[in-house]
Specification:
The complex is a heterotrimer of chains A (839), B (118) and C (229).
Chain A lengths: L10 H12 L13 H30 L9 H36 L7 H24 L23 H29 L12 H33 L12 H35 L6 H15 L14 H13 L1 H16 L7 H24 L1 H7 L3 H31 L1 E2 L5 H24 L16 H31 L1 E2 L38 H9 L13 E6 L6 E7 L5 H17 L5 H16 L12 E4 L2 E3 L9 H30 L14 H22 L5 H25 L8 H32 L9 H36 L1
Antiparallel strand pairs in A: 1-2, 3-4, 5-6
Helix pairs in contact in A: 2-3, 2-4, 2-15, 3-4, 3-5, 3-7, 4-5, 4-17, 5-6, 5-17, 5-19, 6-7, 6-8, 6-19, 7-8, 7-10, 7-13, 8-10, 9-11, 11-13, 11-14, 13-14, 14-15, 17-18, 19-22, 19-23, 20-21, 20-23, 21-22, 22-23
Chain B lengths: L5 H31 L13 H30 L5 H25 L9
Chain C lengths: L2 H7 L13 H33 L9 H11 L1 H19 L10 E8 L2 E5 L8 E3 L1 E5 L4 E7 L4 E4 L6 E4 L5 E5 L5 E7 L11 E7 L1 H21 L1
Parallel strand pairs in C: 1-5, 4-10
Antiparallel strand pairs in C: 1-2, 2-3, 5-8, 6-7, 6-9, 9-10
Helix pairs in contact in C: 2-4
Classes of the chains: A mainly alpha (839), B mainly alpha (118), C alpha+beta (229).
């Protein structure tokens, strides 16, 4: 019988049973780890190592600039150093560090045993490590990217950067971004679906709201960068001119795509840090956070505003004043939701009894540094002032105030707060305090003075400067400050090691916190909670001291093991009612192998071994299909008891299984990428020089109509197979697969024959890529149809278990829409271009 | 009253600003396309250009849409019959988000009456 | 300790945006000093609140949490940013090359390439040009039309006004005016490759008669070079 849980006799026995299922085995077994605690720690440690590398590069920069004509580095090496400093800090440190913290904490805060997709976490981790390694190896080999961390074309194009340096950036960063997008999907689904029963949205700890908003921002924010990287790599590798102004491309398109990602990115980094502040301040003020609902509104507003201000990096390119006005106003307005948060925190402190602890010291550092960064941010949002300050050291100072204030100090506060959680030990030394003051003082000495350096005319990214410019003393002070700051960071490292090694053990919840992550033994067991809690009030006003022992004794949901399976609960999105038993997959090396195949793809692209590219891609596809071998079930089980007198079905028999939501979010990210591509096409028509081209695409009528019919047949039959599941469904899926294969072939044929040489003009290149994008989706739609067939034949599908087919149907729907839009868009933009040639 | 499923209800919290974003894209994109097609040169009655008219029209439309949405949320919140604390919470966040989006629209886009479009 | 070099060096300098020599940079510098003043006040106010709430338990608890959020989150920032944005956009309308305040402009093309600047004077007889030295007449508005032959550069003369990017395939316009004669430093502000550091130029602002004379001599050398080729 599947439904009968084995009741353990004692907490120790339950602990042993759960550990046997959830623990990661030692030795080589570690490579197959999928546990969120372990992977979260790995993410954090890796990010800190990259932070050390990036910090070292910063030291090199400050050494170079300490005097005006330093013989330390030449221009070429300096270019690699400042490019890699920015790249590492943004992509290999800040984003992964927050991902690591989210991965480690989220299930613990939400009262779950793991994230929704443990293997995806592992895959994301390997992609991050391999992509990051590519960049570091390039740095050691002396072929690191050298066009600045925002890689402006045409400087980064093959004409002006002929080596592989720029390819390392484009491919390595895209590789790393896979982990960001997968983390975004993971966090979205976990927050929305994988919570403790009773935790409705309004009862979530505030940190979960922050992470939800940030994950949504990542789904929308990263695709434009990924698209930009793909297009630039296509231009560099195959000569498709998207950014080359001599062939109808436009360097400004890159700037738009980059900053459409790049500005939300700043808030993607800041918001999780603000979430940490919102979590810590109530603990140390000894009272609940004030203005919970207002903060939720504020962060949603901030998330959207952050997408409306990317052009404030582009005030000097000559954009119409009205357009600048929109962005300038949105930039200034971002100050309002930020101020609301700041004053909600102050109100919390004011109405509580603040305890001055080491985390609070760092929170003070946050207030001081971040507020100054915010104020200079509002200054830079003013168009005329930015004309002067743009690309000077004023901006360098500003961005370090924002990022160090808005990220590093909150993260240090979080580090000191949660380190005892991970190690089970409390600090005994007071090294933390001088370490803080060294970092804080060193930082301000370095960067405060830099505002003036910038206003006195020092531009970014120069490796030498004339003595008569009057920048030497200022730079020397900055350099000295930076060394003080480094000593502070070194002291923090020592402090952390001492704490891990010699810290004092504690029973439970040393900070008198109010959230669920402390309602477990520390260091945390692999399964988090021996039983899952029932949440009956807001989950940042709980008493871990009382809840912890009860859960450890198995009093709660799922306080037992069932058939050796890894189980956690899924809830309905809004009300938090228990809805499904999510059965998680166990240890496996498949994420590692898949990431290796992904790495082969990127290496083949990097070293221009294009014959290997399709092989690597097919290997990836095959490996991903192998992931599904252990998911799903071959018979209907109906409702399973989950304890507390409740029963819910397993996720395979539930309408809103996590993987179904994951597909929706993946398609959201995908649609953003596609929309960016279409926007790019329109933008080139509006803005790029050398339009229209001599040769225009000529799709004709017959082939597009046939393609549209094939697409519609595919989607209709795909839908029919799921909507009334019966013994003819397999047949419908065959038809669907065939139709999609035909659409794929027709789209490829159109791309190859109806479009003039894609290397000749941006219009052809854009049309070509749009049609191939649609063709790729048709190909994958065929794969999904085939997958559905296989799952039917293998017995995984029944009228109650339609999950595999329903996920496929989402893809079929999207493919049809994307394909039809592709046909219409190419025809329309050709028409627009042709009319331009008449006038 | 229209019945919404839980995911759709959840999405309400962002709807005010989703409309704001659409307005942003429409105004920014519309302005660029208008400049490209020379609409700022086409003068209608009273010295108002076609460009300006289009921008003001888009502005009014988006403002009305967000206002309506906020009102709708307000009424839903008032008359929700207290189905659950969770839905009440969502309606309030959605309404306040709508009000914030109205403020953002006024603050960012009222410029269409004033600044040089091309 | 920090204050000493600050006081010694002040804000002067041949590349200092805080040492304006024309109406554009002057008005932007005024905006900066105003923003600095307001910003400093806000910073001191908020930090005082941070320290008081952290160190003095009970400070401000007579104001309700809602009161805190409304006062600090809405009433403090909204008037400030509203005034600021209106002022800055009015200034933008005035400074942009849209006709208006300074008409009768002189057009000069700044053609950037890795890593020097070539200035062309289509409004002067013989359409002369100069390299890495830009000649302008004092007291007359200049429209700099910035273009690039290769990568993106950015034209910047901090003492005269803001920057304008020189983007290949685009021509962007910046309006400047020098109110005093003399020599001002200029540089490329956008990273443009290994020569970015050395991509500087000088602006020579001449009295009008002197400017005409410089143009004539430039035309003459230009013609001579043309004949030699």
């Amino acid at each position: 019988m599947t439904g009968t849980p084995e009741q353990p006799t004692s907490p120790i026995r339950l602990h042993k049973q759960l550990s046997a299922i959830w623990d990661t085995p030692p030795g080589l077994g570690r490579l197959g780890a999928v546990n969120h605690t372990i992977l979260g720690q790995r993410f954090i440690i890796a990010a800190l190592i990259f932070f050390a590398i990036g910090g070292l590069l910063a030291m090199l920069i400050r050494t170079q600039l300490a005097s005006g004509a330093s013989p330390f580095m030449d221009a070429e090496l300096y270019a690699q150093v400042f490019t890699m400093h920015g790249t590492i800090m943004m992509f290999l440190f800040a984003i992964p560090l927050f991902e690591g913290i989210a991965i480690y904490l989220l299930p613990k805060l939400l009262g779950a045993r793991d994230l929704a997709f443990p293997r995806l976490t592992a895959y994301g981790f390997w992609c991050y490590i391999f992509g990051g390694t590519m960049l570091i190896v390039a740095l050691i080999a002396g072929v690191a990217p050298d066009s600045g961390w925002f890689m402006y074309t045409p400087l980064s194009s093959s004409t002006y950067s002929p080596g592989i340096n720029a390819d390392v950036w484009l491919l390595g960063i895209t590789f790393v971004e896979i982990s960001a997008v997968s983390a975004a999907v993971e966090i979205m689904v976990s927050v929305l679906k994988v919570r403790a029963p009773g935790m409705s949205l309004d009862r979530m700890p505030i940190f979960a709201w922050y992470l939800l908003v940030v994950a949504a921002m990542m789904l929308i924010g990263f695709p434009p960068l990924i698209l930009g990287s793909i297009l630039l790599e296509l231009e560099r590798a195959f000569g498709l001119p998207f950014f080359d102004p001599t062939r109808g491309g436009d360097p400004l398109l890159w700037q738009h795509l980059f900053w459409l990602f790049g500005h939300p990115e700043v808030y993607i980094i800041f918001l999780p840090a603000a979430g940490v502040i919102s979590t810590l301040i109530p603990v140390f003020a000894g009272r609940a956070l004030t203005g919970y609902r207002t903060i939720v509104v504020a962060i949603i507003a901030l998330a959207f505003l952050s997408f409306g201000l990317w052009v404030h990096h582009m005030y000097t390119v000559g954009i119409p004043h009205l357009a600048l006005g929109f962005f300038s106003a949105a930039s200034a307005m971002a100050a309002v939701p930020t101020a609301i948060q700041v004053f909600a925190w102050l109100a919390t402190l004011s109405h509580g009894r603040p305890r001055l602890t080491v985390p609070m010291l760092h929170i003070f550092g946050f207030f001081f540094v971040f507020i100054m960064g915010g104020l200079t941010g509002v200054m830079l949002a003013m168009v005329p002032f930015d004309w002067q300050a743009h690309d000077t050291h004023f901006v360098v100072a500003h961005l370090h105030y924002v990022l160090v204030g808005g990220f590093i100090f909150p993260m240090l506060a979080g580090l000191y707060y949660w380190l005892p959680h991970a190690t089970g030990r409390l600090a005994v030394h007071n090294l933390s305090v001088p370490a803080f003051w060294l970092v804080f003082g060193g930082f301000n000495i370095t960067f405060f003075i830099m505002h003036l350096t910038g206003l006195r005319g020092m531009p970014r990214r120069i490796h030498a400067y004339p003595a008569d410019a009057g920048w030497e003393v200022l730079n020397l002070i900055s350099s000295m400050g930076s060394f003080i700051m480094t000593i502070g960071f070194a002291l923090i490292v020592v402090d952390v090691f001492l704490q891990i090694r010699f810290g004092r053990r504690f029973r439970r919840d040393p900070w008198k916190s109010a959230t669920l992550e402390w309602a477990m033994p520390t260091p945390p067991p692999s399964y988090n909670f021996a039983a899952l809690p029932k949440v009956e009030r807001r989950a940042d006003g709980l008493k871990p001291q009382e809840i912890g022992p009860q859960l450890a004794a198995g009093h709660g949901y799922l306080g037992f093991v069932r058939q050796g399976r890894m189980e956690t609960l899924g809830v309905s999105m809004l009300t938090g009612k228990a809805e499904q038993v999510i059965i998680l997959p166990g240890q496996t090396n498949l994420p590692l192998y898949t990431a290796l195949a992904t790495g082969c793809f990127f290496l083949a692209m990097l070293f221009k071994q294009y014959w290997a590219v399709p092989i690597a891609l097919l290997a990836m596809l095959a490996l991903f299909l192998l992931w599904t071998r252990v998911t799903g079930q071959r018979s209907d089980t109906g409702s399973l008891p989950i304890g507390m007198g409740e029963s819910v079905p397993p996720h395979a028999e539930c309408d809103e299984a996590p993987s179904w939501w994951a597909m929706r979010f993946i398609l959201t990210a995908n649609a953003t990428l596609y929309a960016s591509l279409l926007f790019g096409g329109l933008f080139l028509w509006v803005s790029a020089p050398n339009w229209p081209p001599a040769d225009l695409p000529a799709l004709g009528i017959v082939l597009p109509v046939l393609t549209a019919l094939a697409l519609l047949t595919g989607v209709a039959s795909g839908r029919r197979a799921v909507s009334h599941y019966d013994n003819r469904s397999a047949g419908w899926l065959v038809l669907c697969g065939l139709a999609q294969a035909i659409s794929c072939a027709l789209l490829v044929w159109l791309a190859l024959t109806a479009i003039p040489a894609p290397t000749g003009h941006a219009l052809s290149a854009t049309s070509f890529v749009i049609l191939l994008y649609a063709a790729l989706h048709c190909f994958l739609a065929t794969v999904f149809a085939g997958y559905g067939l296989w799952r039917i034949k293998a017995g995984y599908v029944s009228p109650a278990r339609l999950l595999d087919l329903r996920i496929g149907r989402l893809w079929q729907d999207y493919t049809a829409i994307a394909g039809l839009i592709a046909l219409v868009f190419v025809a329309a933009i050709t028409r627009l271009a042709a009319e331009g040639s008449l006038s | 009253m229209i019945a919404l499923k839980q995911p759709a209800t959840t999405l309400l919290v962002a709807t005010g600003f989703i409309i704001w974003s659409v307005a942003f894209i429409a105004l920014y994109g519309g302005n660029a396309v208008g400049c490209r097609l020379g609409w700022s040169e086409i003068e209608l009655a009273g010295g108002i250009t076609l460009q300006r008219l289009m921008l003001v029209g888009l502005y009014a439309l988006s403002l009305a849409a967000i206002l309506l949405f906020s009102l709708w949320m307000h009424r839903r919140y008032r008359s929700a019959g207290r189905t659950s604390e969770a839905t009440d919470f969502i309606y309030r966040v959605a309404r306040d988000g709508g009000v914030a989006a109205v403020a953002a629209t006024l603050f960012c886009f009222t410029l269409v009456f004033w600044l040089s479009p091309c | 300790m920090i204050a000493v070099p600050l006081a010694l060096s002040g804000c002067a300098g041949n590349l200092s945006a805080l040492d304006p020599a024309g109406p554009v940079s002057q008005s932007i510098a005024e905006l900066w000093w105003a923003m600095l003043l307001v910003g400093a006040l806000i910073f001191v106010l908020v930090m005082a609140l941070v320290l008081l709430t952290m160190l003095r338990p009970g400070f401000g608890s007579s104001l309700s949490p809602k009161g805190w959020i409304i006062a600090g989150g809405l009433m403090l920032p909204i008037p400030v940013i509203t005034l600021l944005i209106v002022y800055a956009l009015m200034q933008g309308e005035r400074l942009l090359p849209l006709g208006g305040a300074f008409s009768d402009t002189l057009r000069i093309e700044a053609r950037a390439r890795q890593w020097n600047w070539e200035f062309h004077y289509p409004d002067s007889p013989g359409a002369p040009f100069s390299t890495d030295v830009l000649h302008i007449p004092v007291g007359r508005a200049i429209d700099i039309v910035a273009t690039s032959e290769d990568v993106i550069h950015s034209f910047w003369v901090p003492r005269l006004g803001g920057k304008i990017d020189a983007t290949p395939g685009h021509a962007a316009v910046l309006r400047l005016r020098a109110d005093q004669s003399g020599s001002f430093g200029g540089l490329c502000a956008e990273y443009c490759g290994t020569g970015h550091t050395i991509m500087r130029f000088t602006v020579e602002a001449h009295e009008p008669a002197e400017y005409e004379r410089v143009m004539q001599s430039l035309s003459a050398t230009g013609t001579q070079r043309g004949q030699a080729q």
